[in-house]
Fold this sequence. Notes:
The complex is a heterodimer. Chain A is α/β, with parallel strands linked by helices. Chain A is built from 17 helices and 14 strands. In chain A, 55% of the residues are buried. The radius of gyration of chain B is 23 Å and the shape is globular. Chain B is 44% helix and 16% strand. Chain B is an alpha/beta fold. The interface between A and B is large, with 76 and 82 residues.
Amino acid sequence: MSKIVTENTCNICTPLGACLAIKGIQGCIPMLHGSQGCATYMRRFLIGHFREPIDIASSSFTEESAIFGGETNFKKGIENIISQYNPLTIAIVSTCLSETIGDDIAAHLINFKKIHSAIDLPDMFVVSTPSYSGNYTDGFYKAVYSIVSYFSAKVAGQKEKKLNLFPGILSCEDLRYLKETLQKAGVAATLVPDYSNSLDGGAWQEYKQIPPGGTSINNLENLHNNYASITFRSISDKKNCAGYLLKKKFNIPSKTINAPIGLRNTDNFWKLICDIFKVSMHSEFINERGRLLDAMADAHKYLAHKRVLLYGDLDFIIPLSSFLSELGMEISILATGSQKPRIPTNNISENSSLGETVKSILWDFDFVKIKEAAEDKNIDLIIGNSRGYKLARAMNLPMVRLGMPIHDRMGGQRILHVGYKGAMALLDLISNTLIQKQQDSCLVGYANM
Amino acid sequence: MQVAFVIFFRLRGFIMNTLNILKERKNQVYSDSNQEFIIECEKASQSGSVSQRACVFCGSRVVLYPVADAVHLVHGPIGCASYTWDIRGSLSSGPQLHRLSFSTDLKERDIIYGGTEKLFASLIELIDKYKPKAAFVYSTCIVGIIGDDVEQICKQVENKVNIPVIPVHSEGFKGTKKDGYKAACEALMNLIQKGPRLTRSLSPCINIMGEFNLAGEAWMIKDYYEKMDIEISSIMTGDGRVEDIQKSTRAHLNVVQCSGSMMHLAKMLEEKYGIPFIKVSYFGIEDTSEALYKVARFFKEKKYMQKASELVASEIKGLYPEIIRYKEALKGKKAAVYVGGAFKAFSLVAALRTLGMEVVLAGSQTGNEQDYIRLKELTGKDCVIVDDSNPLELSKFTIEKKADLFIGGVKERPIAMKLGIGFCDHNHERKVALAGFEGMKNFAKEVYMSTTSPVWKLFKQRPFYE
Lengths: 449, 466
């Protein structure tokens, strides 16, 4: 299947991930350095998923900028953002345009600060995300790395027995749940980023230039004083790992594990927390775990050996596939639009010893290739973002929408995936989708399944 | 350099946000009715202003993508194709190639060594697989920088596969959305010129331009004209077919909606083929009727006007009882309108008046001077007029003017819903027809349902704990 053209891509470009991460930092607004279209399309994409106003600025390159460099537009853009948004921080994100012309954004920033040295400027830093390398999750982690790199140790602060948690791209509900449960467990934590409020806020009486919420600057400046770092990631990527940076610079122990989706991954997470912070498992979670096991038993027959086609971002679908395997489901296809990394992916091979049914990862796949791969696999269920709906419809298969973007259902930003509670929610969703298919296809029309 | 200065006042629960309009944008916002009406427009967006406009590529694909039996290949990194995959409600009665997303997906290696080989191979692959009647190749920002000779590759492929392979000069930074429209019009002209030379049709025949068949609106409009015994040679580009577009020179008249996007092509067709054009809109009762009458008048014979009048009368008869019903509930309520092209704003002002609503804020992404003068004439003295606006300005005036409804697109929707007012999705993604007479009914219903939702009352109520 050596196809050249990409048809119906699975990918979303890197700068979008960076903008998403930046939206999870208090008082921070991103400026895309490049063509205006990028900002507008990314806003549209994120607005469709989160159903929130999402302002991303652009330096609005012109033909002149492309030829002579983007400094003029850069300066104007920053000035206008400060004037209208009064942000605490501005993160400048590169695009394929500014990267390709080799625009020295760091130099523009230095010049800007020199010119305006008398004024109290917001914090500003640059994230390099050319859209032709990687997927939006790479852009996300890169931004997190840049954020941590910029803010950590800006103040001396005091050592605290706190956790640095880098949760990756989870839902707003996931982030809220992680904060709640860590608090219950008696563990203080800083989540970087935290868009649980800024991208899932309440009703407004006035338009808020920058939605409230996000990791506080104070917490960012004290990351180096904390006790340990945990990153949720399934792909090894030390170069862009904020946790690893804190380990190298400040000797803070860093662990990278799968996102706590499913029983084993959640167990791993809590075991790590209990070990590091010397706390014991809270009775509420023990009960939750018990209920999850019970629910898994109740549902096992609906799910046993059902063949799943799973696609999306690996840092999400790998832990998810682990959960599906726990339920006795078969992962017939696990596909991603990402390109295979040159470094072997350690976390994946670790999991394969736990009875995974994932035979292989289909890298650099688009939806046309996925469909071809699925033809003879007798798939029972499709799990992935809204973009797979056409595939599900063409193959007449039931579908569970998970991941990003969810553009054809309500509540994509509120789905709980993590923890024992999240696993139960997913279990219900997946089981009921299959039960509905069975019920609808059944001629008899039973109300008792 | 300006320093931000934002003050919040709480006046009996009503909050006014005094936003500093950017200095460079002061003349693009008309909000003081005591001042003479001047508005600046047709400018590039201000850096950092968070304009709602996209780029040149956006303008091109708006015009060209609905051609359903052509392959649309985006030459560049994945983003442009990824964000625009099937985001439009443009329907086709046959082939669905426009709903697929094709990209050369340039990676780092291609940026360094050039993407022409990949482009050539991609085109051959797609044309071989889908057997389209033509192919359009959209250049993105990167292509403009790395200097891929897209025209050359298109020629090479065309010689090999014998279908029109047309480059679209849509590099994102080469201007604004309007330049994208122009690039698309040039591509269409290119396509038409590659087609057969035809004589004028013997019976009345028109092209409908600037109509993209969102939610089947083009079919509705086609039906109206056919009932008047007027043939539609082609629709550009709703439910578009390469062959029809190439035969568009048969027509006697080009009926142009959405004056911004296809005017350039209409002018070229007039210049080169002597086909005159008229400007119309199909939103609202008045404008839809006038669109039919204008064509009837052009063909002079009394029977066309008679048929048009009969059609309009019968449609309106069916429509009015419902409109009256909605008007009862909507009378006196206020609306804010922010759309892409100004022509739509005109029609909406009229349509809203039919529902008894007053427009307190009106603007567009791409209007020109004449458009805004007309818009000011159509709206009240105190109506705020904005050009190429942004979320901060739009929300400021929506709140100040106490709008009950906002009409706009996907990026305006969250503003309205965050502030607790009704919203009408009048954009290219809509799945409900809002054009023509049937569309007026749908429009009125949508406005009514959203504006009168009980949710807004709960928004405004003080919660028990405050």
